[in-house]
Amino acid sequence: MDIERIFRANPWWDEEWEFSEDPHIASLSKMKYVWNVALPPIKKEGIYMIRGPRQIGKTTWIKKRIKEVVDRKRKNVFYFSCEMLTKEQFNDLFYTLEELNMPLNYIFLDEVGYIKDWQVVIKHHWDRGFLRGKKVVLTGSTSMDLYRGYERMPGRKEEGKEIFFYPASFYDFVVLAKGKEVSISYFFSHLEEMNNLLSQYLLSGGFPLAFNDLLSKGKINDAVYEVYIEWIRGDAERAGIPVEKLIAISKVFINALTNTISWQEIARRIGVSSHHTSNEYAEKLERLFIISRIYNAFPTHEIQQKKNKKFYFLDPFVFWAFYGIAYGKENLYTKAKHLLNTWMPRLVENVIFTHLLRFFGRDYYHHIFYYKTKKGEIDFYMRIKNKTYLFESKFGGKPDKRKDVLYLTQKEIGKNMLPVSYFLYVLGKTSRVANNSEKLAVELRRIVKGFKW
After folding, report:
1. Contacts 24+ apart (CB under 8 A), 398-402
2. CB 117 within 8 A of CB 106
3. Largest Cα–Cα distance of the chain, in whole Å?
4. Are residues 46 and 136 in contact, defined by beta-carbon separation less than 8 angstroms?
5. What ranges in 103-207 are assigned the alpha helix state H?
6. Between vectors from CA 137 to CA 132 and to CA 140, what angle results, nearest 5°?
């Protein structure tokens, strides 16, 4: 590995270099709305994997962590972007670092998922001792073996080793827009204002470039959509999804949002001969952090994998980026604003799912299902240990009379009715400090006082 290239990637090794010169740190100074991401601290030695989509701020988060450490000791931290490396170059990188004989405590390796067999290289250098005693932070936005690769990492089952980096939640969005947290009394006395903020969140989602544009300029520029559309197109093509099939499958998942659909129907709509191909495409989009699926869990309360599935987007802004791929990206904000009322009930249901998802990570499909019987369908059937929770999104609709269901409404408040904007706000706040299912269960009971599950 070229030593000069390594030094260019770590300019803080020069005592006279200032962090204000770093492009990621500098970009924060240009943003009016800076999202302070809540991720667990990196304190113990071991290998950490941070997963999340592109353009969400993973590298910026890394640079902020590096700045904190560098303020104490400049040569204790190493950073490298691995997106363009081959397996051989990645392997050589560690031997070069060893030859430099620097007192490294932190090693940040950005976008390792693009390297074939990256996990083999990491494990080799851990086993031979070079990485032991260090805090090794890996990030990945996309990889066909990202999930399986991390399973082979030493110490992976220790607490805090696997971290999911999700887009900003509705709670984060409200705090950014208002400049502070809002109290429960303020929330309910200004419910119309909160619902208006939810409408804005359904346009920008939790992606920093998008919500900065919307909150500071009142619109999202075409250039911002272009960034995310090109990310999806480029990574999908790299994953083996041809552009014409991506356009077709974009239309399928947009129009199927909140509805159930089979692999055979997806295959028919995108023009492939086998349901195995439609399954393969969907799986690749899931691993690109674009969509997620949930299964039916009736009548046996177990996953019914052969029955129709429901698909949701990772974030509302990803939905609109997909809309641009499917139907054209020109004047996309104008189109989105015009279509928002039509799509709002379905996007609200989507956001409910993504806020519940944060508490389960990649094992969410063992806990979150839909529930369909001859009498009707429940949007979300959630299982935490031996307890079950039923949620129905009724934004703009009329709640039914089932006593065992929590109805998430636009404005109605009652024994088993709660405004969805408040529900999302509290879930987002809770996920910042306790992203596990047991804390979720405690919070659910607290926010619906008097409601008997």
Report:
1. 400/376
2. no
3. 71
4. yes
5. 118-127, 146-151, 170-178, 184-189, 191-204
6. 135
Q: Can you tell me the distance from the alpha carbon of 410 to that of 329, in angstroms, rounded to the nearest whole number? A: 30
Q: Specify which residues 164 forms β-bridges with.
A: 51
What region does 145 belong to: left with phi over 0, alpha with psi -120 to 50, or beta? alpha
Q: Decide: helix, strand or coil at residue 16.
A: coil
Structural tokens at position 136: 């090794």
For the residues of 228-274, what is the DSSP string, one character each?
A: HHHHHHHHHHHTT--HHHHHHHHHHHHHTTTSEE-HHHHHHHHT-S-
CA distances from 351 to 202, 259, 420 (A): 8, 15, 10
Query: If you ran DSSP here, which 8-state letter would residue 436 be given?
Result: S
Please give the Cα distance from 417 to 449 (Å, whole number): 11
Query: Measured between alpha carbons, how far is residue 417 from residues 4, 7, 387, 390 in Å?
Result: 61, 58, 20, 12
Residues 6+ apart with CB under 8 A from 4: none
Question: Tens digits of per-residue pLDDT, 380-399?
Answer: 998 887 788 889 999 978 88
Q: Per residue in 321-363, pLDDT tens?
A: 999 999 999 999 999 999 999 999 999 999 999 999 988 877 7
Sorted by where each begins, the domain ranges of the chain are 3-164, 170-447
Is residue 296 within 8 A of residue 304, CB to CB? The reply is yes
Residues 313 and 53 sit within 8 Å (Cβ to Cβ): no
404-430 burial, b at 16+ Cβ within 10 Å, e below that, comes to: ebbbbbbeeeeebbbbbbbbbbbbbbb
pLDDT of res. 351: 98
Which residue, among 418, 410, 411, has the nearest Cα to 449 in the 3D structure? 418
Q: Do 81 and 66 touch, CB atoms closer than 8 A?
A: no
Q: Which helix (H) or strand (E) holds 414?
A: none
Q: Which fold has domain 3-164?
A: Rossmann fold (3.40.50)
Bridge partners, 383 (sequence order): 388
Q: pTM to 2 decimals?
A: 0.91
